[in-house]
Amino acid sequence: MRKVTPVFYASLLLSLIFIAWGGAAPKNLDKVSSAAQAFLQEHFGWFYLISASIILIFAIYLAFSKYGDIKLGKDDDEPEYSRFSWFAMLFSAGMGIGLVFWGVAEPVSHLHEPPFGEGMTSEAGENALLFSFFHWGLHPWGIYALIALALAYFKFRRDVPGTISATFYPLIGSKVNGPIGWIIDTIAVFATVFGVATSLGLGAIQINGGATYLNSDIPNQFSTQFLIIIGVTILFMLSALSGIGRGIKWLSNGNIILAISLFVFFLVLGPTTFLFDSFTTTLGSYIQKLPQISFRLAPFDEGGNDWIQGWTVFYWAWWIAWSPFVGTFIARVSRGRTIREFVFGVLAVPTLFCALWFTMFGGTGISMDLFDGGGIWEAMNQGENTELALFATLDHLPLSIVATVIAIILISTFFITSADSATFVLGMQTTNGLFNPPFIVKFIWGLVQSAAAAVLLYSGGLEALQTASIVSAFPFVFVLLLMMVSLHLGLQKEFEPQTSKKKVF
Length: 505
Known about the structure:
Layout: H1 6-24, H2 26-64, H3 83-112, H4 122-135, H5 138-157, H6 169-172, H7 179-214, H8 222-242, H9 244-269, H10 272-294, H11 302-332, H12 339-371, H13 376-379, H14 389-394, H15 400-429, H16 439-492
Helix pairs in contact: 1-2, 1-7, 1-16, 2-5, 2-11, 2-12, 2-16, 3-4, 3-9, 3-11, 3-12, 3-15, 4-10, 4-12, 5-11, 5-12, 5-16, 7-8, 7-11, 7-15, 7-16, 8-9, 8-15, 8-16, 9-15, 10-12, 11-15, 11-16, 15-16
């Protein structure tokens, strides 16, 4: 444990206090965190929306600016991974469990309870896919791109430690090695623990839902989800032993193959023409309306504002809470790529894949409920059992049992890769950026994030998971905005005369 920094002990203590609080007084934790969530959503929803859009604009600006040709590494560095493996790893780390969990559930929820207008109409169906594209499109990947760019640039090109605080050298200089830097990294680690715990909780809920759908004797309750968390924790710790080049890479490639298989299943056996028409129409609407919906709040419509706070603000907070983890991981596997290639790769490819995914999954669910009386919403018990949406949809298609088994395996492997990647990132951030953190450090963080997921499920289920994301993400928004300024200052030095490039970072 000699290699750990004060950040390890501070963030571990905070996490353990939270876990102990949830274990000893789950109702009190739920009450306090829900109050904090309500306050942040009501008073700072605008701040989340504006911040996410500013970050996205900045990432796009970098790709088209004079900085686009700068390599994330030395000038002669080449990418370590093929593009396929690179896309697979960043996709698996970035959104895997959430896509499977919300792929049908979110669009069907929007169809029945739209942000505006009447539910179960053609307009509601169009907006259901539009807002799904929006929530899983350019904005989240812009947030990931910023933090990954900053980490990769400063680590690989400027030879500083691979920590969040190290990206602040242009702003605060050597102070990153003191208490200010420790505070920055502790905020990042705390946000990561509960951002990842949210996804792990979603994974446990949906694995449980799928198992219950296959066998009604398996109870859909916390005790089952707790056993699932224990089982998957053992699996991802075994994966962590093999390292990033083997375990995570192999599992990520396998994830993509399974995801594409399930994707093709919906495309071929679902309402194919309707899906292609929906994708084309919604993609056009997304491009056309992106500026408007990026800043859309509803101060004159209480119901509409509640919808935005419950969906868009939650998602922006979730992506921000995930960004230290995903950003660090993407940076780790992106050495040797130019800023332009990186931004286009991280923004365009995953956004397009997410749009296609929601069209195939959500479009099928919408078609069944809107035109065929499919009863997906009823199977979800009007949105209370969100995890059943995917399995209820599969039940209406041929080979449903086979597809359900594939879906459960996919969720499980996404669970493993997300948790595996997170142990690496948390270990890296608490050992001053070590690329190969000690296994004992990764083991401790693996137990902590699994315990956090279990406590959140125990204290309030899905709502508690959403609350944790919103609350833990808030302080990290300020870190991201300042990181954007620091990265720009660092890039400006690339074009200064060689004699003026003092090695301050």
